[in-house]
Structure formats: C-alpha cells, structure tokens
User: Fold this.
Amino acid sequence: MHTLRNRLIFYGGAAAAGLGSLALCRSLLENCIDDKGLLIRGSLEGILLWAVGIAFAALLLWTVRTVGGEGTYEDNFPESNTAGILMIAAGLVLVRAIPGLDPGTDPAVLAAPVQTLMDAAGRYLPWAASVSMAVLGVYRLFGKRPVCIFGGVICLFYMTMLVNNYRLWSADPQLHDYAYQLLAGVALMLCSFHRTCCDANIIQRKRLLTTGLMAAVCAAAALSGDFQREFYLASVLWATGSLCTAQTLPPDPEEDEAPGADGEPAGEEM
Assistant:
C-alpha cells in the first residue's frame, strides 16, 4: 500500500502537474500578452500556474521524506522495460533535435579559446549525449549498472545547454518567454548529476527523485513554446526514465550491524 501510494503521488502527481502546466502556459502565451508583448498581470492562467507549481513542489518535498532505505544499485534500478524504452526514445528524439540546439557564439563576447571550446561542445556533445541516453536505456532493460562516463556526458551536455541558452535568454527582458525552459535546464542538470552519482554507486535516491520529477514537469511545461521543443520532449522522456524506484527499500545492512565500541555488533539496550 505504501509503495502504491508513493507511485501514485510521484508519477501521477508529476504527470498531472506537467500536463496542467503545459496547458496553462500555452494559454498564457496565447491569450495573456498585450499589444506591447508584455504579460498581463493578474490573469487566471498566471495565478493557476503559480498554484500548480507550488502545490506540486510542496507535495513532492513532503512525500519524498517517506522514501525509506537506500538499497543497492540493483534495488534502485531493477530491470524495467518502461524505463529502458523511455531512455532509448529520449536518445532518438534528441537526434532529431540536434540541428536546432546550437545558438552560435559571439566573438565579441567570448575569448577565442572559450569560443572554440563552446563550438566543439555544441557540435559533438549532443551526439554523444543521445548515444549515452540510448546506452543507459539498454543497461536499464537488463537491470545492469553502467560505467558512470555515460551519465557524465549527459550531465555535461545539459550544463552546456544551460549556458548556451542563457546567453540567448539574457537578452530577453520578458521572463515568461523562458521561465520554464530555465527551470527545466537547472533541474535536468541536477537530475543528470545525481543519476551519474548513482551509476558511480553513490546513491542519493531522494535527491534523484526530487530533481528528476521537477525536471520532467518543467520540461513538459517548456513544450508550450516554440523554442527547442524536440529537445524538451527528449528531456521529459530522459528525466522520467532515469528515475530510481519509489518503493521503500530495506536499510543498508552495514547500518543495522554497526559495531559497538568493543568491535562487536551493537545489541539492544536493556
């Protein structure tokens, strides 16, 4: 019952929040912008967007406290056709998004070595990230732990995307044009980092669940705009597929059998 409740809250709540935010954000951009391109204050869509976001964040942070135990890697990432297919699909969709990902660089802003590095990252990292997503999906299909280099490539990719896109967003004074894209970029970077830590057998499942579901919801809402839509669709699939299990796991045996001061296992107090 506890496991079923966790799944309904985590996955059902995230799906409802993501789809609701997507619909509200699209309506906001279509109906609540004045002739000057400014957001109309006090609109119903804007109020509901705030309400959905705050409610989901509060529910997620409250519920994630009940996720007990750490378990082994195999406990957290068992064989899963659903998660594996989502991650493979994310890699395939990302391939389609690659032509529209590189915003270019401005020589007047970046020094020549930095510009060269950013150009190389924009050219090769998306391909490496798409392959890494598909490879991790195959590992998840069989419940095997991959080497952490694949997750590291994805984390570096999202970090680079956040830097590149922010250079475009910083020139736009209208925050509503890119608010969810910015939040999604930060959450995706953190989610990929915590997933890479798990692949390195440093498991922090509460942080992975929190950042992963936040990333999925924000990336779904970011689909409301016309900016890099296939990239955010791939990110929704990746964030959802990369999550660990939400069920309560047994505590680490090493913690249960922690030795006492004399080197013997600690017993019950009389």
